[in-house]
Amino acid sequence: MAISNDQQMNNSETTPITAVKFESLSQEDANALVIEHQSWAEGVAKGVARAWNLDWRNDGLDGAALEALLFCARRFQPGRGVPFRGYARKRIHESATEAARKCRGWRKSTSVQDSAAREISAELLNVFPELRSGELPNFDDGDGGDDSGRGSIRQLLIGASILAVKNATDGSAEDLIDQKRMITFMSGLDLVHQWLLWKIYWEGSSLRMLATEWETDELNVIREHKILLAFLMKRFSKGRPPPTPKIRPGLRTVAARIGRDPNSMAGPFARFASEARQL
Amino acid sequence: MTKKIGDKKVKTVNTTGEASQVRGTNQVLGVGQVQATAGVGAVKGAGSINKRRPTRVMSMAEREHFFKMIDEEAEQLVASGAIPAAKRELIKSAVKMAVESGLVEDEQTADGKKG
Fold first, then answer.
1. How far does the CA of residue A36 sit from the closest CA of chain B (Å)?
2. CB-CB under 8 Å, A145 with B48
3. CA distances (Å), origin A211, targets A109, A223, B10
4. What's the half-sphere exposure (Cβ side, CA atoms, 13 Å) at B45?
5. CA-CA distance, A242 to A231, in Å (whole number)?
6. Are B110 and A85 in contact (CB under 8 A)?
7. How many CB pairs under 8 A join A and B?
8. pLDDT category, A145, cuts 50, 70, 90?
9. Is ipTM > 0.90 here?
């Protein structure tokens, strides 16, 4: 039986689609939440201070953590079904690390290597934000996962090694050779892979920000990044070089867009190498 | 008996001839009926795609275990040449710092429950 347009409209009027609105807590409830979780937030700040050998009170990490806790408590919407600590932990950690990087203790490092390690570890937290929540980055080794976390640790080490080569500024011949080797190799990668590595490691963009910029799903960028790290690990190792990774279907439109863009066509590493030669 | 391929090297490569013309396409005269496809026999499992892996949460109690793993894995990567030997200590301490910063002492504090 055919349904007329009027009937269809009437049916749609009887079942209106309404957007679900989540309510934030009242000020009293938000304050109660702050009191309840204060010592836990301080624990997050202490963790940051312990990692970088800072004083969590004197270096102002406690204040930054509490400020973030207050902010999160006011914005928290229990109706969403996300536990408060799960929602707030990353933000509290970010706030504490930002305070740490600005404090006097950060600049007062015991050695040059210690200072460099601090910088790399802070950048590593942006590349692997799971670490802020006390989680190891997920890693699939293709054989059904690696429960021990060794695969994840290898990824962290490779990520740190890219950052270490990028940050090498003491001008030693060894550093320059390592840097040149890496830049030359990366300039031979596919454009979309070059831009992914450049944006994450050289420009400090997060994987989420990059996914937004590329108008693609975050998982596409996260998975491609993991594949690239696994590839780089094998490529820089002795032995037979692995085949260059293919671009995943979810990123092919991005790759095509980059290929057409005259500003992106040259590739960031090739441009960087040619600029370095001119200096 | 196998015949060995000698060390004959290719000395010259002749240029390929250019296409002088492209033949025009013929008109489509008719379209046959679409025939039923045979049933798909079986689909092979897609390996590890379907497996959902829980995120590996680190606890303070495992700190030393993780640090030991970082040392071991770093040594292996240095030995394989994946990370520069001169930066071994720098990379190890940077990863340890990043891991350590996410560990919260006594996670089940204060209210005795996890969020």
1. 7
2. yes
3. 35, 11, 48
4. 6
5. 7
6. no
7. 181
8. very low
9. no
